[in-house]
Amino acid sequence: MAKYLVTGGAGFIGSHLCDALIARGDEVRVLDNLSTGRRENLASEVEFILGDVTDEDAVQKASIDIDGCFHLAAIASVAQSTEDWVGTHEVNLTGAIRVLDAARATKFPVVYASSAAVYGDNASMPLCESDRASPLTPYGADKLGCELHARVASVLHNIPTTGMRFFNVYGPRQDPRSPYSGVISIFTDRLSRCLNIPIFGDGQQSRDFIFVGDVVRFLIAAMDRADTRAAIYNVCSGQSTNLRQLAQTLATVSGVTPQIEYLPARQGDIRASLGDPARAAKILNVRAEVSLGEGLSQTVSHHVTTTLDTSKAAE
Ligand code: NAD
Ligand code: UD1
User: Fold this and answer.
1) pTM value > 0.85
2) Which CATH fold topology does 171-207+239-273+290-314 show?
3) Model confidence over 42-66: pLDDT tens digits?
4) DSSP string computed for 149-198
5) Residue bearing the CA closest to ligand 2, atom 20
6) Has residue 101 got a pLDDT over 70?
7) Is 180 a catalytic residue?
8) Probe ligand 2: pick from 13, 173, 207, max atoms within 8 Å of CB?
């Protein structure tokens, strides 16, 4: 049994990670400012600290007596980073350095969320970890910055670090309420309300979607092996899906035919993003196991259940 700090633990990916850690008997502390996360996402066993990863005192306090930190707190929206360059930078990069700095004293391992956004306009298919990073957005540049600072933490301060380049993660609890939310959460929510679904651009842009339960297994495997080599792993399925195919699969799963509205493409939007999962498979012995159809079914069922619960509570 170990005690872990999960920054951003009240969010979508973080809360699933907390559930898995508790299920295997670990103790969990969460540091989260609830900007996009929700207290209700967390099980009662979790020790919760309301605070900001940019706040030195909050991070130091949250780091007391831990065996490791999963650093997931960030402003996860690529589009938001193009609008609020400095504000997102403070959270996404300075916040990560705060966490690494807190690890200097006791050398607890830090497994942190990087992103496929670091590859930017690198058109290699599929993308391997050794391929050139070429971010197109402040978000991608800051995630690359996290990787560089994590390397410094490992080399200079002997802090075990591992960077996880998440591709497009989806699943239950992904919040659809912001226009910047993940595309699957937005489409699922709008389909359930029989609204049209907006596609930015021609819908031929593609992504490597990975189910959140799979991502949790990658994170835990990485923590169990973290060392000062500052490894970086793709967290992906290795399957490419374009936005039109995604809309079609979701329609099949939810039984609703979507009205698609084509809108102008997003600034800095990546055209094709597909990862090579081989390194994580070889070294961490983890791979994505949930197919897109199965993952979307679970996502839709969860959305229907929580929407019903919310409307019953409102009656
Ligand atoms: P999320 O928005 O649900 O979770 C982020 C959490 O961090 C939230 O609980 C939020 O309240 C918290 N947070 C934000 N700013 C904070 C701050 N300054 N101090 C403390 N807490 C703060 O998003 P998510 O999808 O769960 O993303 C988790 C991590 O994974 C992020 O680092 C994100 O950049 C990364 N990531 C996500 C995806 C994806 O497809 N969802 C892909 C690549 C990388
Ligand atoms: C996502 C993550 C980001 C992560 C990156 C890694 C979110 C919110 N963002 O960025 O944290 O680092 O993956 O690959 O989870 N789209 C529509 N209609 C919509 C919403 C989106 O057509 O209503 C399109 C977008 O233009 C884009 C695609 O869907 O082409 C995916 O968008 P989005 O879910 O926002 O994710 P990314 O920008 O890929």
Assistant:
1) yes
2) UDP-galactose 4-epimerase; domain 1 (3.90.25)
3) 999 999 999 999 999 999 999 999 9
4) HHHHHHHHH---EEEEEE-EEE-TT----STTS-HHHHHHHHHHTT--EE
5) 183
6) yes
7) no
8) 207
